[in-house]
Amino acid sequence: MEDKVELMQALAVQYGVKVLMALVIFVIGKWVVKRLSVVLEKIMEKNAIDPAIRHFTGSLVYYALLIFVCIAALGQLGLQTASFVAIVGAAGLAVGLALQGSLSNFAAGVLLLIFRPFKVGDFVETAGTSGVIQSIQIFTTVLFTPDNKKVIVPNGRIIGDNIVNYSANDSRRVDLVFGIGYEDDIDAARTVLEGVLAADKRVLENPEPVIAVVELADSSLNFVCRPWVKSANYWSVYFDLTEAAKKALDANGISIPFPQRDVHLHQQPSAATS
What pLDDT is attached to residue 9? Predict the structure, then answer.
């Protein structure tokens, strides 16, 4: 009877120490992991990383490291952790394969929020669509098209495609082409177009607008007008200058020809006449 008691005491001491060490490893490990995740979030906050990315990444790192802490604690108890690690790895692989599209979109979202090729409110063209950025989310980016359609684009498609940001700079160049007749005075047409640009206060003085003959087309002599404007004024200036140029050219007797073709009809003598 005494032998059994001594054996039980010995086992209690042996496994008690292991349980105590496992608890110590778990408690200290959990504290260290928590501190690491907090430090990581603070580092990302200093680098102006989006809050959603900070919290998600911090949680991901926390739980990933906590799994290793649990494995270390179980190993201290004498359990075989190799099979447990294999199960966790296989489960992670299965989840990764099942969510590979979502994970690629998440990674792309992280890159968009870190490198910031555009921001909310920018007008961009990407992934086969164009519009104003409404929100940049973890997996998708939401934008509104000029005709007020809501388009949700997966971040993976944006990263894999060209991104044209029309709002990246404060100013943009407006490209306009006006055709005049070959019989019209080139210098007079240039003077009229210069007056149209000078009359619009939204046209920037620097860089200086360009007005030049760009093409000797089939039916017209084409002028190119390239004024610089604030990005926010691009379309209003584009429409207004087009209308103002037409009115000014008409008022000064300068024609704007349209494509035309001369057709010559040759009458063949009939068989009866011959």
Answer: 60
